[in-house]
Amino acid sequence: MTTRALLIGLEVLVLLACLTLAASVITTKVVRSRREARTSAALAPVRGALIELAAGEPGTGLRLLHNARGATADAIDVAAVGLLSKVRGEPATALVDVLEAHGAIERARADVHHRSTVRRARAVQLLGLARASDSATTISEALEDPALEVRSSAAYAASYLGDAWLAAPVLRAVGQGEGIPAGLAADALLEMGIGITLVLRAGLRDEAPRTRMVAAHVSGAGAFTQTLPELRLCLVGDPDLTVRLEAATALGRIGRESEVVVLASCTSPDQPSELRRACVQALGVLGSTRAHEVLEGLLDDTDPRLAELAAQALLATGPEGRAILERRRAEPAVGTALLLTDLRPVRA
């Protein structure tokens, strides 16, 4: 076979592959459109009642929603699950009552062990959204599911359940194997309240870098001041740079004036540039005049961005910090910081 014939054969194969892919996409869209049309048609008779229920004004339509069966009940369940992520209080409770009347909650409890990954993920998510009683253990088990999709849904469910008992399983799921998304884990932990302090302190000492990173982030975002000793250790000696960056940010948010020393120690030239910048920004957030000497020294740094951040941090410490900059206004980093500050609109 000649080279030309081979090329023609390859072109035909590529064309066939493209046509197959296009046909698959079109088929998927058609199937989805038809399914959505069927759901919309089934929901039409009760749409008004569902809207009233979500708005906290169930009226006479509540019985209609409870008594629905077949395709209409399925459509109501789909819509109710979507609404549960948007409403709270009595409307959410009423939606859960409708789901229970249709048997959706019980089916979800059964589906958490289904062989289908999609079914397991949806089931866990529903149990969390519905704040189903006694579902914390189920969600904890789902956080160890072999499928990432299910583990992620479990973290999402944990954020709605808000049970502090789930803090340890969530943090563990972050660091094991592929790990659940860090953002999902952090959101879930922040919904669990002050009862997770000890778990966060343990997480900051965990072997998995991603677990330490999330624990550091949540410590700062949630103002968990009892984690300060572990945060200091992470900042100074953690082998993972991302953990050190999160620890620096957290110390700036929740630290005291005493944190100036440890943050300043990580601004020296032998430290990674990202860490130096993060620590300077943290010093600015602290706003302590005890950082003046360190920050003024960094105005001459060879890293121009670091010098700019040092100037901004000095401004954040108040009139005394600004006075230092005024004396050095001619320097590029200082002049830029002062100009940007002067251009900001004055709040009424």
The CATH superfamily of one domain appears as Leucine-rich Repeat Variant
Indicate the percent of residues in helices. Answer: over 70%
Number of strands: 0
H/E series: HHHHHHHHHHHHHHHHHHHHH
Give a quick account of the main beta sheet: strands, pairing sense, barrel closure. Answer: none
Q: Number of DSSP helices?
A: 21
- Tell me the CATH topology of one domain: Leucine-rich Repeat Variant
Percentage of β-strand residues: under 5%
Oligomerization category of the chains in this entry: single chain
The residue ranges in which pLDDT falls below 50 over 5 or more consecutive positions are 343-348
Indicate the mean pLDDT.
88
**How far apart are the termini?**
82 Å
Question: What is the CATH first-level class name of one domain?
Answer: Mainly Alpha
Principal-axis shape: extended
Which second-level CATH architecture of one domain applies? Alpha Horseshoe
Structural class based on helices, strands and sheet pairing: mainly alpha
Radius of gyration, in angstroms, nearest whole number: 28 Å
